[in-house]
């Protein structure tokens, strides 16, 4: 049967006119024969939604914790110390009705080094590339300077924004209303939550709210992909996470971890050699500890985490080296992928 539309196409397009038309059954047969999925069977259900969501907020409010809970696995490292996340990490949640591509970002803090400047750029730049913004704050304190500055930039970005006032498990119920009002006054929010992202049920409610604000569209990543970071990068992050957990306050910020070797041995064990860089000789001594005891603890914790993440046995070897003031050194920053832009920030 020929429809009026088809007749028109035949008149206006020679290439279309020359192509034989296949009915869906013939198309499926051809697809089976050639081994590809026919376009028709991309099987995107009616009303499917997808898009990018930046997770932004002051340092230490729980952004990476939220992302890991949403994924039910660790892709972004978490610690009680500030400035844990250093670069953007994509984390993909695929559901039957939608795909959310989260962008975890470094927390907003007062920049003191060139590394900090890179981290802030990473966070602020994310606002312009996404469909929805998730603005996370913590219920345990009233809004601070960094919350206000970020709220200002979020307003300028003009995107649907969801406010998550996290760590509600840490506050007395009597201050909840006042705290919520203080944060709600920072901007206009499509939805807001006073919650704790440690509980997966709470996180799933936030996911539902996000999906409602995503544009219609097909999945952007294959369903089985959960992140854009490689196993090698994740291993380096997990060594840094172990160091953040075990070391005292001032040392962790000076740490960078680089993977020197990452290979599977014939017996199936993954051999990983990594170097922990610090900024001073005194820090090197601390990281190694008396008789190497501290390094052993870091290595043991990191190995367990890497094994859990990769699902295989791991043999981890660690070295410690000094790169004087690397957080201020553009050559080292660039080499390690913290590319600081020349653009002047406000
Ligand atoms: N009590 C409580 N602690 C939480 C909650 N969410 C996160 N935390 C803790 O807060 C600390 C910081 O969490 P992260 O997820 O690393 O915070 P972040 O916002 O990603 O931090 P940066 O990467 O430094 O910006 C960790 O010790 C978490 O366990 C919460 O709902 N309640
Ligand atoms: Mg983080």
From TrEMBL:
Pfam families in alphabetical order: KH_2 (PF07650), MMR_HSR1 (PF01926)
PROSITE patterns on file: G_ERA, KH_TYPE_2
Recorded topology in the membrane: Peripheral membrane protein
G3: annotated span: 104-107
Subcellular compartments: Cytoplasm; Cell membrane
Gene3D superfamilies, alphabetized: 3.30.300.20, P-loop containing nucleotide triphosphate hydrolases
Superkingdom, natural source: Bacteria
Region described as G4: 166-169
GO BP annotation list: ribosomal small subunit assembly
Region (G1): 57-64
Keywords: Cell membrane, Cytoplasm, GTP-binding, Membrane, Nucleotide-binding, Ribosome biogenesis, RNA-binding, rRNA-binding
GO MF assignments: GTP binding; GTPase activity; ribosomal small subunit binding; small ribosomal subunit rRNA binding
Stretches assigned to the KH type-2 domain: 247-324
Binding positions (GTP): 57-64, 104-108, 166-169
A cellular-component GO term for this protein: cytosol
Region (Disordered): 1-24
Annotated segments matching region G2: 83-87
Composition bias, Basic and acidic residues: 7-21
Family, as annotated: Belongs to the TRAFAC class TrmE-Era-EngA-EngB-Septin-like GTPase superfamily. Era GTPase family.
Role noted for this protein: An essential GTPase that binds both GDP and GTP, with rapid nucleotide exchange. Plays a role in 16S rRNA processing and 30S ribosomal subunit biogenesis and possibly also in cell cycle regulation and energy metabolism.
Subunit structure: Monomer.
Protein name, entry field: GTPase Era
Organism: Ardenticatena maritima
Lineage start: Bacteria, Bacillati, Chloroflexota, Ardenticatenia, Ardenticatenales
